[in-house]
Design brief:
The protein is mainly alpha-helical. The protein is built from 14 helices and no strands.
């Protein structure tokens, strides 16, 4: 039996609930006493499942849907084993990291999840040649899959270090940032941009230029994450140029959207338009912070404070990637857009905003070693809001049409 797109995305929403629950559990352990579970193990389980169970699964389903919706002869059934393999691997990571931490079992499930994305890449790239999809969107999709492959090289290196217990701190941190960069700014971002460009059918002649600017700057932009390492002047110059190019590309994208005002966006309900605006603002803040980090003194200061790093990572994964995926799911008419669903989206987005606000205040205060009263308790309340919003989305999301 072949499951429909809406069914796979309902699983995505359930997985988002699990991600939010793990985040809630971490916040509870920080603010209050809770002897069960190892905090590090929860953290490992949280981010691995967020990457593969929530974002990667959702991206793969939506990218497949982008081909399927305009091609009556497209056989979505061929992707079902890939989705199942990724989900089995994701749930395996969820349980094994939570109970055992890093070990042979959890690393084994991680490798299985990686190979499920390789399998998807081979199928999808082949189908892009034969099925109708916006050609610029197809370029974003291909680049996304390429950067996913690059990112996984970091996973293999990290897994080797954790299993052998041979860990150089600088190499470990640089490898972790390598994986995160090519997941966040490669696989996730390019996949989302492909979906967006396909949804609005491009933004005029400038869209190929926007794609090329982000493409050529993605690899050198990795070094923005490791500016605390010693690097030659020529490489530092390339890194600065890459940050400038990405900022310029985002300005071009915004200008094109304002000029062409895609009808697909204008006709959407107010809350969905607000959600897209929120994503755009979060992306702008992310790119401006990225540009600011090219100043060595600022970079060393920022990377020296964990709250700043946590705030930045949540800004990208929650405010940019996760909110965009939710926007796209409901903008694409896969589920009905009832008042309850739109209210649930609003609640979740408020949770994202408050999460970034508290983390940002906490991070800025860290510069002067100032403790924010009840910060952990506030973050726990925010985690409750995010958990509540995700549960409501699962409860109220109903299939609108046969997909």
């Amino acid at each position: 039996m072949t499951m429909k797109t809406s069914s796979w995305l309902k699983i995505s929403l359930v997985n988002l609930v699990i991600v939010a629950l793990l985040g809630l559990l971490m916040r509870y352990k920080i603010g209050f006493e809770f002897p069960l579970f190892n905090q590090k193990y929860i953290q490992y389980s949280h981010y691995h499942f967020a990457f593969y169970g929530w974002v990667a699964h959702t991206l793969m389903v939506l990218m497949t849907h982008a081909l399927f919706k305009d091609n009556a002869d497209f056989k979505i059934a061929r992707y079902q084993p890939v989705f199942i393999a990724n989900l089995v691997s994701s749930y395996g990571m969820l349980v094994s990291f939570l109970s055992l931490g890093y070990g042979a079992v959890s690393v084994g499930f991680s490798v299985a999840a990686i190979f499920s994305t390789y399998w998807f890449s081979l199928l999808f790239i082949r189908d892009l040649r034969w099925y109708n999809v916006n050609q610029i969107a197809a370029k974003w999709f291909r680049a996304a899959l390429f950067f996913n492959f690059l990112s996984t090289l970091g996973v293999f290196a990290l897994g080797y270090m954790m299993l052998t217990k041979v860990i150089n701190q600088d190499v470990y941190i640089a490898t972790s940032y390598y994986f995160l960069h090519f997941q966040y700014n490669g696989w996730f971002f390019f996949g989302c941009m492909g979906l967006f460009i396909n949804y609005i059918n491009g933004v005029g002649p400038v869209h190929i230029q926007i794609y090329r600017l982000f493409l050529v700057s993605c690899i050198p932009a990795y070094f923005l994450s490791v500016l605390w390492l010693q690097m030659p002047t020529w490489l530092y110059v390339i890194v600065v140029v890459s940050a400038i190019l990405q900022t310029y590309a985002s300005v071009l994208l915004l200008a094109a959207l304002l000029k062409f005002r895609p009808a697909e966006i204008i006709k959407l309900p107010l809350i969905l338009r607000y959600l897209l605006l929120f994503v755009g603002l979060a992306l702008s803040v992310k790119l401006l912070l990225q540009l600011g980090s090219t100043v060595p003194a600022i970079s060393k200061l920022a990377f020296g404070f964990r709250p700043i790093v946590i705030a930045y990572l949540h800004l990208v994964l929650l405010a940019v990637i996760s909110l965009f995926l939710l926007f796209y799911i409901y903008a694409s008419d896969i589920f009905s857009r009832s008042g309850a669903v739109l209210t649930s989206l609003l609640i979740f987005s408020i949770g994202v905003f408050l999460n970034e606000l508290v983390l940002a205040i906490q991070g800025i205060a860290a510069f002067s070693y100032t403790l924010i009263p009840y910060a952990n308790e506030m973050l726990f309340v925010v985690a409750v809001i995010l958990f509540l919003g995700s549960i409501l989305l699962v409860c109220y999301s109903k299939k609108k049409q046969i997909l």
